[in-house]
Write a structure and sequence with these properties.
Layout lengths: L2 H5 L9 E2 L8 E6 L5 E6 L12 E6 L9 E2 L4 E3 L7 E8 L5 E8 L10 E5 L6 E6 L2 E3 L4 E5 L4 E4 L7 E2 L6 E11 L3 E3 L2 E3 L2 E11 L2
């Protein structure tokens, strides 16, 4: 069971998640090299990554839920045994302003189901239309931010059915990001947090 599922009781309805657009925040995203080795970075694509140690309790896993080996390096979290299939990584941190922030990253768009509590999911394998899933239920994001390795940025607005569509006109790494806030305080380890946020990313490579 993920820390997020332990933190939030099952009685929380979808209304517990506020999808009001928040100011652009740091996020965690995944990249894979040609050999399949994956790296997770903290910060923003195109900028100098933050220290990998700035997030707590990172966990990498595939669709079967089994943890993958993860090595913490100064500027990245390295996952050397990333096999085929969509990869997930979760982590958290408390900011200097006392915000409890959960990061939930996914690499790949082959699978059409969500494993993380907050996740962007393609409507078909390899597709460019995505839905936002919160704890198993589909919700409509107010916006999804897109950044690419080529420096191209877009903000996607949802269609009437809540989905977002992204054209991928050129090769490179695409990172989709959405941030949401839980309505209400939570207590973790005996400490109460009034501001709890979740940032989900979906990254994938478009080949030439």
């Amino acid at each position: 069971m993920s820390p997020l599922r332990r933190l939030l009781s099952p009685s929380f309805a979808l209304a517990a998640l506020s999808l009001a657009c928040a100011a652009h925040a740091d996020y965690v995203w995944l990249e894979r090299d040609a050999g399949g080795v994956a790296s997770a970075y903290v910060g923003e694509l195109g900028k100098t990554p933050q220290a990998a140690s700035s997030v707590a309790a990172p966990r990498a896993f595939l669709a079967d839920g089994k943890d993958l080996p993860l090595t913490l390096e100064p500027a990245r979290m390295r996952i050397p045994a990333a096999a085929a299939g969509d990869l997930r990584l979760v982590a958290s941190r408390v900011t200097d302003k006392g915000v409890l922030h959960y990061y939930q990253a996914r690499s790949g768009r082959a699978e059409t189901r969500a494993l993380n509590d907050l996740e962007l999911v393609p409507t078909e394998p390899g597709g460019n239309t995505f839905r936002l899933v919160w704890k198993g239920g589909i919700v409509a994001a107010t916006q999804v931010n897109v950044e690419t390795s080529a420096g191209w940025r877009r903000v996607l607005a949802p269609a009437q059915d809540g989905s977002v569509h992204l054209d991928t006109p050129f090769p490179g790494l695409y990172v989709l990001e959405v941030t949401a806030k839980v309505n209400g305080a939570v207590t973790v380890g005996g400490k109460r947090y009034e501001d709890v946020r979740h940032t989900a990313t979906l990254s994938f490579e478009v080949r030439p």
